[in-house]
Amino acid sequence: MTTRWGVAGTGGMAEAFLDDFAVVPDAELVAIGSRTLERAEAFASPRGVVGMTYADVVAADLDVLYIATPHPQHRDLALAAIAHGTPVLVEKAFTATLDGAREVVAAAREAGVFCMEAMWTRLQPAVATARELVAAGEIGEVTSVHADLGAHRRYDPTHRLFAPELGGGAVLDLGVYPISFAQHFLGTPDRVTTSGTLFPNGTDATASLLLSYDDGRGAALSTSLQAATGVRATIIGTRGSIELGPEFHHPTRLVLRREGDPAQEIDAPALGRGYSHEIIHVGECLAEGRTESPLVPLDDTLGVQWVMQEALEQLGITPVEGTVDLS
Questions:
Q1: Which of 11, 73, 106, 251 has its CA 20 to 30 A from that of 137?
Q2: What is the helix (H) or strand (E) element at residue 265, kind and residue range?
């Protein structure tokens, strides 16, 4: 069965995602939506698909809508698509706020409509291999996770990465990756402790997070828009460890270290740019009649969103949702 896709958004994220339709034969791009019809058509025409406004694409005849706009616009677009009965794949960060995420999840569950956060990392072959090794007990019981994701970006308060009204800042844009990685292997923490620095306009430039669990497990995470980091993640167990990266959020290899054994390198390349695995997984979920992904369940998304909101509040930041004109 061919899955018919629409895309809301015409930025860099949407463009990267669309490249992988070429390597997924049972997925078809049919529509692209933007704030203006002119922008949508300019983006859609070279790809041989229909350009639409946001109001039209959320109500279009689609199997699934991928939402790739800035974070504060995700809530309104997802709610509108769900109201029309259209399944949604919502780019990370899922929303700008925890309340916004709860709204979308509640609407999807009440309507029985498929909804998933586009956390492509969880679907990468290398991460799937790590998950299988952990489940098989290869490193014993998981006790902690270490992960970092930082990149140097020139400060520009008008750019999406730094603008508060567009969900700018390190935590929502990059920090979501190490937080989601830790949540995947440890679950949602009991406490979050955060320190960091701010840009002149008040958005978060760096953040270091300690996730604590009542049973003694923990995660040490960091993110930055001011400096490039190693972009590695390590899962530590009672009998060994698994290291992914660089870059851990779309890795092609991992290193397994077990007590008394030499390190074992395992190659696990992605198909295309790696977004293909999301496209394939969503198609499989829809074909099976699922309303949630077993690998990126909505409760995990809410847990990640809670950690991000706790971190931002500790940095003195109150994120807000935006509004999208769907008239």
A1: 251
A2: strand 264-267
CB 268 within 8 A of CB 13: no
| The architecture CATH gives domain 125-267 | 2-Layer Sandwich (3.30)
Q: Whole-model pTM?
A: 0.97
pLDDT tens sequence across 84-123: 999 999 999 999 999 999 999 999 999 999 999 999 999 9
Cβ-count burial of 63 within 10 angstroms (0-12 exposed, 13-18 middle, 19+ buried)? buried
Three-class SS of residue 151? Answer: coil
- Tokens encoding 298: 């909505």
Q: Where are the domains of the chain?
A: 3-119+275-296, 125-267
Query: Architecture of 3-119+275-296 per CATH?
Result: 3-Layer(aba) Sandwich (3.40)
Q: What is the DSSP string of 42-109?
A: HHHGGGTSEEEEHHHHTTSS-SEEEE-S-GGGHHHHHHHHHHTT--EEEESSS-SSHHHHHHHHHHHH
Distance of alpha carbon 21 from alpha carbon 205, whole angstroms: 34
Query: What kind and span of H or E run contains 115?
Result: strand 115-118
> How far apart are the C-alpha atoms of 40 and 9, rounded to whole Å?
8
Q: SS3 of 256, please?
A: strand
pLDDT tens sequence across 152-183: 999 999 999 999 999 999 999 999 999 999 99
